[in-house]
Amino acid sequence: MGEHRHTATIDAGESDTFAYLCTGCPLGCRLEVDVVDGDVIEVRGFSCKKGERYGAQEHTDPRRAVSTTVWLVGGPVERLPVRAAEPVPKDAVLSLVRELHGLEVHAPVEVGQTIATDVAGTGIDVIATRAVQPKEQLPVAG
Question: What is the pTM of this model?
């Protein structure tokens, strides 16, 4: 959760303000999110609509983009770059990466190909971000 800034009393009850650094775009706005009884009532400090959505989501359901690599068998390289098809709940990132740790994928692989489904019980698939053809076999002398 973000840094807790202060608590104030308003008509609806006590308001808590949390500070976040937005990563929705390159601007990196410093956001303040006001919360009453667990509900986001206002987001301030954003320069674009992405920032407003990011602030509310970051407080209620923080998610992260996840990119990593898995073992590649039969290709010209040993590792295949992959990513989660959508942002992963922050508290599930480590479980997702650990589940992929020993995964082996066999060439050929296409960009966007699903490599694993419902990883770590998140309901999120992991997809390849690079196309890889099988390593060329050496001709057999005959």
Answer: 0.76
CA–CA distances in Å: residue 121 to residues 16, 22, 31, 95: 32, 27, 31, 9
DSSP conformation letters of 39-83: EEEEEES-SSHHHHHHHHHHHHS-EE--EEEEEEESSSSSEEEEE
Please report, for residues 74, 75, 77, 110, the alpha-carbon distance to residue 114 in angstroms, rounded to integers and kept in the order given. Answer: 18, 17, 19, 9
Residue 120, classified by CB atoms within 10 Å of its CB into exposed (0-12), middle (13-18) or buried (19+), is buried
C-alpha 24/C-alpha 14 separation (Å) is 28
Token pair, residue 90, equals 């922050």
Q: What is the pLDDT of residues 34-70, one digit of tens each?
A: 999 989 999 999 999 899 999 999 999 999 999 999 9
Nearest to 36 by CA among 21, 60, 17, 62: 17
Statement: residue 103 has pLDDT above 70: yes
Domains of the chain: 3-60 (no CATH), 67-128 (3.10.530.10)
